[in-house]
Amino acid sequence: MNFEDYRGVWVFVEEKDGAPAPVSLELLGAGRKLADKRKTELAGVLIGENNGALAKTVLEYGADKVYVYDDPIYRFYRTETYMKAMLDCVEKHKPEILLYGATSTGKDLASAVATDLPTGLTADTTQLDVEEDTGLLLASRPAFGGNIMATILCKKYRPQMATVRPKVMKALPRQEAASGEVVKESLPLREDDIRTKVLEIVRSTTRHVRIDEADVIVAGGKGLGGPAGFQVVHRLAEALGAAVGASRDVVEAGWIEHHHQVGQTGLTVTPKVYFAIGISGAIQHVVGMQNSGLIIAINKDPAAPIFQTCHYGIVGDALTVVPMLTEAFLSALA
Ligand code: FAD
């Protein structure tokens, strides 16, 4: 493998409801820094149907170039079609670094591409840097229960690939006057050759705000005693228009679905305000929320570790304190 053939930093730009997913914009911001340090170009890869207008948005958020695969066969995400497009693009244009958002689509695509290309993949990265002279990507992520940050290198193969957690990188301000190159790509794929068919898309009817996009999260833990006690969390979240988060023990007890779980084996979140209610503050939970803007903990044990992480703490029974807070917020916001 000749490393000299591989140039540029790429971002897979995931589309969500006709716009780039927030994490893709964050990655364009992070990718811009890597590309500038390496004195190379930043490119986005767009795969979809009627996605021409999105190409301009990708340039406006920092890319020098966008590779566009635009075909009805890419209308819905399918591992097979998107993987074929990405492999085609990588084989033709050879990036040095290729980043994906650590969303369900990004993780699926990155791992499928990594099974075909002779290269590695660092999952769930939270910090990125590059060695200016060698181009070696320094992809860091929490390891061993969040007690250390491991920096993972891919020394022998190219491209170097990583999935990056949402909300940890910063998007650049949009530059509406930005221009760049749009490269149209195509592949002779036939629907009959694709094994997966999308018959219907059923939108989730959940009324909950997503925790990875929320400004305010009200999270509850095992201290709430059971699903009935956990309702105080739902009511406070509703009063504040917030998302509901949970510790792993709550998810494992079946009080709420896994996509509400915060922490090492759940999601990393950085809301402006995070309420930790009846949550002990185990390291595996804290790694997922410690970068929140304002952390307010409510716990009946004054020695609970969560009080080491929070900005404000209330020592008391959550089943009494939280309904009082909810009432106070409801009247203040009425
Ligand atoms: P507990 O530890 O049982 O704490 C309950 C807290 O509530 C206590 O502090 C108690 O004082 C308080 N309390 C009790 N009653 C009341 C009341 N009436 N009012 C107020 N406070 C009260 N955990 C995660 O959260 N996310 C993860 O992603 C995650 N990943 C993990 C990965 C690995 C490999 C391992 C080993 C563990 C992981 N865990 C994770 C589990 C983690 O170690 C803890 O077990 C878990 O976070 C504890 O959940 P908890 O705080 O809800 O419950």
Structure description:
With 334 residues, the chain is of the alpha/beta class. The protein is built from 9 helices and 17 strands. The strands form 4 sheets. It has a 7-stranded parallel sheet, with helices on both faces. α3 packs across α4 (104-116). It is elongated, with a radius of gyration of 22 Å. The model has no long low-confidence stretch (mean pLDDT 94). Bound molecules: flavin-adenine dinucleotide. Flavin-adenine dinucleotide binds next to α6, α7, β16 and α9. Belongs to the ETF alpha-subunit/FixB family. This is Electron transfer flavoprotein subunit alpha/FixB family protein. It comes from Cohnella boryungensis.
Sum up the structure in keywords.
334 residues; alpha/beta; five-stranded parallel sheet; 17 strands; binds flavin-adenine dinucleotide; Electron transfer flavoprotein subunit alpha/FixB family protein
